[in-house]
Design brief:
single chain; 2 domains; alpha/beta; nine-stranded mixed beta sheet; globular; 14 helices; binds NADP nicotinamide-adenine-dinucleotide phosphate; Dihydrodipicolinate Reductase, domain 2; Rossmann fold
Length: about 475
C-alpha cells in the first residue's frame, strides 16, 4: 500500500529544518517504506523541481555529513509540490487530485502533517474533512499530525480537540511533542522498567525531591513577537517539562502500547494538584533576563517571563510529599536538559568525621541533552584520609557507549506516524490536563501579580533569588553544565 506524507507549511522553517532532513535520513538508512511519497502544500508557487532544489540546499545544510548528492537525487524523485491556500476549498480539491494521481488511485496510508502556524490548524482540519480527505475507505488509513502548541490554554485546547474530533477519530490523531522522540526520554522508561534495581527505590521512601530543568543558552532573538504571546510557561512547561514529569513519575504500564503508556502518563497529571493563587505566589518563580525588553518585537513594558520555576506535587501513594521542581529559562548559563533525582540522606551518619559534615546524599542525573547520559553520584572513602568521604560518580554516556550520533527526534516520530504507533504522542485528555495545571499559574500571575517578576543577568542560572527560594523549600539547585565528551 502506498504511503504519502502531506506537509502543510511546506515552504516553512520546520519543514526545511526538521521534517525533510529527518525523512531524507530515514530514506538513506532504508527505514522508509519503499513506496513512500512526500507532497508539500503551501501558498508559495513552486514547481516540483523548484521545491526539490530548495530542499536539496536546506537538507544539505541541516544533515551535514549525512548528505550524499546521489542518495538525495533518488529521494528527490519521491517529493512533489502542490501550491494551495488553507482558506480555499479549491486548493483541497486540487490537493486531492494530485495525491490520488501520485498514489495511482490505490488505497493508501496518508499522514497529513500540520506544520503551519497554529491559527490554521482548525481550518486545515475542517477543509480536509470537507474534501473527504479524512475518510478511511477500502482499507485506506488517514492520520493527522498536529505540531505544538496545541492550544494556548485549556479552553482553546478543548475547542481544538472538538474541531479535530469532528473530522478525525482520536486514534487518527498524533499531537507531537518532539521531546518524546528523544532517545534519552524514551530511555527513562527503559531505565526504570527494564531494570529491577531502580523501581524499589523510586518513591517517597528514598527520593527527597526531583529537579527537572530545561535550560537554553540562547536568548529570544528574532522570535520576540511569538515569545511575547507564549512566554516560558506556554513554550516549555505545558509540553516538554510536563512530559518529562510524567515519564519520571508514571507507574509501569502493563504493556508498551500507546494507550497503556498514555493511561499511566495521564494518571500522573490527574494526581498533580493544580496550584491555588496563594500557592502560586509561594511555589513559583518568574523572571526576565536583562535585555529582553530591547529584543525586536518585545513591548518596552513587557512582563513576559523568560525564566520560571514551578514546584508541583504528585498526590498519590508513590510520590506524596516529594516536590518536583520544574525549571526552564532562556539566556541561561548553558544549554542543558536534565532530570535530577535527589535521594534522601542515609538515616544515620556513621562516619562522623568532621570533614564529613555536609555529606551529600545520592543523586541520579539523567542528561536528556546535549551530553546524553546518566550519572549516579555516591559516597566513597577518600584513600589515605581516615574516614573522609567524597561524592564520586558512575558515568554512562550514550556517545561513548554506542558511538555514532543520536538520531534526531523527528526521525523516530515520523516513522511512528507511518506505522501507526501513537505511544510517543500526546492524547486529547493529556493535552487538556496539562493545560489544567498551567492555566491557574498564568491566571494567578495575571491577577495577583505574585510572585514579583524578577530580573536576571544573561549567562547565569536565573535570578539570584532562586537560590534562597530553593533553600526555603529545603533543597538546593544542582547547577552544573554538562561536560560534552
Ligand atoms: N520551526 C521549528 O523549529 C518548530 C519547532 C517546533 C514546533 N514548530 C511549530 O511548527 C509550526 C510551523 O512552524 P514554522 O517555524 O515552520 O513556521 P513558518 O516558517 O512561519 O511556516 C509557516 C508555513 O505555513 C504556510 N502558510 C501560511 N499561511 C498559509 C495558508 N493560508 N495556506 C497554506 N499555507 C500557509 C507558509 O507558507 P506560504 O507563506 O508559502 O503559504 C509556511 O510554509 C508552528 O506551529 C510551530 O509552532 C516549529
Amino acid at each position: 500500500m502506498p504511503n504519502t506524507f502531506i506537509i502543510f507549511g511546506a515552504s516553512g522553517d520546520l519543514t526545511s529544518r526538521k521534517l525533510i532532513p529527518a525523512l531524507y535520513v530515514l530514506f538513506r538508512k532504508k527505514r522508509l517504506p519503499a513506496d513512500t511519497r512526500i507532497v508539500g502544500f503551501s501558498r508559495t508557487p513552486f514547481t516540483h523541481d523548484a521545491w526539490r532544489e530548495k530542499l536539496a540546499g536546506t537538507t544539505k545544510e541541516f544533515t551535514g555529513k549525512d548528505f550524499a548528492a546521489e542518495t538525495w537525487s533518488k529521494f528527490a524523485q519521491t517529493i512533489f509540490y502542490q501550491a494551495g491556500d488553507i482558506d480555499k476549498p479549491d486548493s483541497f480539491s486540487a490537493l486531492r487530485a494530485t495525491v490520488e494521481q501520485i498514489e495511482e488511485w490505490q488505497p493508501s496510508t496518508r499522514v497529513y502533517y500540520l506544520a503551519t502556524s497554529p491559527q490554521f490548524y482548525e481550518e486545515a482540519i475542517a477543509q480536509l474533512g470537507a474534501a473527504g480527505l479524512a475518510e478511511e475507505t477500502n482499507g485506506a488509513r488517514r492520520r493527522i499530525v498536529i505540531e505544538k502548541p496545541f492550544g494556548t490554554d485549556l479552553a482553546s485546547a478543548q475547542h481544538l480537540n472538538e474541531a479535530v474530533h469532528k473530522v478525525f477519530s482520536e486514534k487518527q490523531v498524533y499531537r507531537i511533542d518532539h521531546y518524546l522522540g528523544k532517545e534519552t526520554v524514551q530511555n527513562i522508561m527503559v531505565l526504570r522498567f527494564a531494570n529491577s534495581i531502580f523501581e524499589p527505590i523510586w518513591n517517597r521512601n528514598y527520593i527527597d525531591h526531583v529537579q527537572i530543568t530545561v535550560a537554553e543558552e540562547v536568548t529570544v532573538g528574532r522570535r520576540g513577537e511569538y515569545y511575547e504571546k507564549a512566554g516560558i510557561v506556554r513554550d516549555m512547561f505545558q509540553n516538554h517539562l510536563l512530559q518529562l514529569l510524567m515519564v519520571t513519575a508514571m507507574e509501569a504500564p502493563v504493556k508498551y502500547q500507546a494507550d497503556a503508556v498514555r493511561n499511566e502518563k495521564v494518571k500522573v497529571l490527574e494526581a498533580v494538584h493544580p496550584l491555588t493563587p496563594k500557592e502560586v505566589a509561594w511555589n513559583t518563580l518568574r523572571a526576565q533576563y536583562k535585555g529582553y525588553l530591547n529584543e525586536p518585537g518585545v513591548a518596552p513594558d513587557s512582563t513576559t517571563p523568560t525564566y520560571a520555576v514551578v514546584k508541583l506535587c504528585v498526590d498519590n501513594w508513590r510520590w506524596q510529599g516529594v516536590p518536583f521542581f520544574l525549571r526552564s529559562g532562556k539566556a541561561m548559563s548553558c544549554r542543558s536538559s536534565q532530570i535530577v533525582i535527589q535521594f534522601r540522606q542515609p538515616p544515620h551518619q556513621l562516619f562522623n568525621h568532621k570533614s564529613n559534615q555536609d555529606v551529600e546524599a545520592n543523586r541520579l542525573i539523567i542528561q536528556i541533552q546535549p551530553a546524553e547520559g546518566i550519572q549516579l553520584m555516591f559516597q566513597t572513602k577518600t584513600p589515605d584520609a581516615g574516614m573522609d568521604l567524597r561524592l564520586t560518580e558512575l558515568d554512562f554516556s550514550f556517545s561513548r557507549e554506542f558511538k555514532g550520533e543520536i538520531p534526531e527526534a523527528y526521525q523516530r516520530l515520523l516513522l511512528d506516524t507511518l506505522i501507526g504507533d501513537a505511544s510517543l504522542f500526546t492524547r486529547a485528555d493529556e493535552a487538556e490536563l496539562a493545560w489544567g495545571i498551567i492555566d491557574p499559574i498564568l491566571a494567578a500571575w495575571q491577577t495577583t501579580k505574585q510572585p514579583d517578576l524578577l530580573v536576571y543577568e544573561p549567562g547565569l542560572w536565573g535570578p539570584a533569588e532562586a537560590i534562597d527560594w530553593m533553600y526555603h523549600h529545603g533543597c538546593q539547585w544542582f547547577d552544573t553544565c554538562p561536560v560534552l565528551t
